[in-house]
Write a structure and sequence with these properties.
Elements (H helix, E strand, L loop, with lengths): L1 H10 L6 H55 L2 E3 L11 E6 L5 E9 L2 E8 L5 E6 L2 E9 L2 E10 L6 E10 L5
Antiparallel strand pairs: 1-2, 2-3, 3-4, 4-5, 6-7, 7-8
Length: 173
């Protein structure tokens, strides 16, 4: 008796047709695909933006340190061809107490390193900036020109920053 009532109850119910289900799926696709694409663009744009900030920060930090030391320098020794991947930039100066300061900049594994010593003593090595791709230099007439490039990220999220610094050495006007 219960089975008979269930059978009659199920006859009166109508389900969704195949066309209604397909229309619902298409409508969901039309709404969800742009939302998903927008989310992917936001994630990619955010990564690129973050990498850009890191690249700018790396170049600025390198430029600040090198400019400060170069403004003090009296003697400049450039790497071969002016490219830091081939050698080091050496800056030397003497203060009023006859102490001789030597600062050597080199790029190793994407890191700009600063080696600082006084009167030929044990040098202190500091990593000044990371993500440095290239540093080139030239020196003429008391003007040291440095071009620093940083690269952060990979693929579509790669950010590059290049800046050129022109530094007038102490007493070279």
């Amino acid at each position: 008796m219960i089975l008979r009532k269930l059978a009659t109850a199920n006859k009166n119910q109508r389900g969704l047709t195949l066309i209604e289900v397909l229309v619902a799926l298409v409508a969901m696709g039309v709404i969800l695909i742009p939302v998903a694409m927008g989310t992917i663009q936001i994630i990619n744009g955010s990564g690129l933006s973050n990498n850009g900030v890191v690249a700018v920060s790396s170049v600025q930090n390198a430029g600040d340190w090198m400019s400060r030391d170069a403004r003090m320098a009296e003697i400049v020794s450039l790497p071969p061809s002016g490219n830091f991947t081939l050698g080091n930039l050496t800056l030397t100066w003497t203060d009023y107490g006859n102490n001789t300061y030597t600062v050597i900049y080199s790029v190793t594994g994407g890191e700009l390193r600063r080696s600082y010593s006084v009167n030929g003593g044990t040098p202190t090595v500091t990593i000044v900036a990371r993500n440095i791709k290239e540093v080139t230099s030239s020196y003429a007439g008391g003007l040291l020109t440095l071009t620093i490039t940083a690269t952060v990220g990979s693929g579509r999220q790669t950010a590059n920053e290049t800046r050129t610094y022109e530094i007038r050495l102490r007493g070279k006007y």
